[in-house]
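ARCHIVE CARD
CATEGORY: sequence design from structure
SOURCE FIELD: tokenized fold
FIELD CONTENT:
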């Protein structure tokens, strides 16, 4: 009888304790934050609670525990008050987009809140670059868009390189301005009988994206010369010999060549 009375008293004491304690409430409202690559943002986690209870804040990113001090130093606790578990994400990258959960725990209860983070950035690289048709001076290209990273693609830029160029060079196209919905264009003013590689870059309001992988090499068709030789001169040689020299235009991709008769 005594033991039963003792246990009843313990139960009553616990119930009274729980009733007297103020419940823990997260006062921050669930939300979606829209951020641009390179910016920093504070994720709030404000709490109303019984001041006699100690709080423990734990943050998760896509249901994975965030380890502060690691992860490249992007995450930092900034909640200075006892009832604040705010964190800051510095220099946000595309990989930081996702669901963030703040879990708050005391010795008598626990609660959590989620924040969705949308990160806008330059477009990803276009894919499947194809040379559909090629002539002596033009090349028709097609491609597929890469991810727009939450900001619509506004324009494409086409670049080309040859064995004779100094890296990638911008080229002239038709249409002259390739809009964000355009997935084909024709490169003009190419040199005949030259091997070309092409690549495509996308742009949006945030900035310019990374270039695509190069297309397969494609050689423009041959044609008759359109530029006459330069610096033609003659002289020298033996009695029965006349040496004539000239320089061929760089468009022909050949070094100066002597001709003997």
């Amino acid at each position: 009888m005594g033991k039963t009375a003792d246990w009843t008293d313990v139960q009553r004491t616990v119930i009274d304790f729980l009733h007297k304690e103020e419940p823990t409430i997260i006062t921050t409202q669930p939300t979606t934050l829209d951020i641009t690559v390179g910016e920093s943002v504070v994720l709030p986690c404000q709490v109303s609670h019984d001041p006699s209870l100690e709080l423990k804040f734990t943050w998760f990113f896509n249901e994975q525990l965030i380890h502060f001090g690691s992860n490249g130093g992007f995450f930092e606790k900034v909640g200075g008050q006892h009832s604040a578990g705010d964190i800051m994400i510095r220099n946000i990258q595309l990989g930081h987009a996702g669901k963030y959960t703040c879990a708050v725990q005391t010795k008598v209860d626990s609660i959590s809140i989620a924040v969705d983070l949308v990160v806008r950035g330059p477009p990803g690289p276009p894919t499947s670059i194809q040379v559909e048709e090629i002539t002596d001076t033009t090349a028709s290209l097609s491609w597929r868009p890469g991810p727009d990273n939450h900001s619509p693609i506004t324009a494409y830029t086409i670049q080309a390189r040859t064995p004779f160029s100094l890296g990638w060079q911008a080229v002239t196209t038709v249409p002259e301005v390739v809009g964000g919905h355009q997935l084909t264009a024709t490169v003009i003013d190419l040199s005949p009988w030259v091997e070309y590689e092409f690549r495509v870059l996308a742009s949006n309001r945030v900035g310019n994206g990374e270039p695509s992988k190069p297309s397969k090499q494609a050689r423009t068709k041959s044609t008759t010369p359109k530029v006459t030789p330069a610096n033609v001169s003659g002289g020298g040689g033996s009695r029965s010999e006349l040496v004539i020299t000239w320089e061929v235009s760089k468009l022909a991709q050949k070094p100066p060549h002597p001709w003997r008769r």
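CARD ANNOTATION: The chain is about 5% helix and 40% strand. The two ends are 132 Å apart (CA to CA).
SHELF: design records, drawer C
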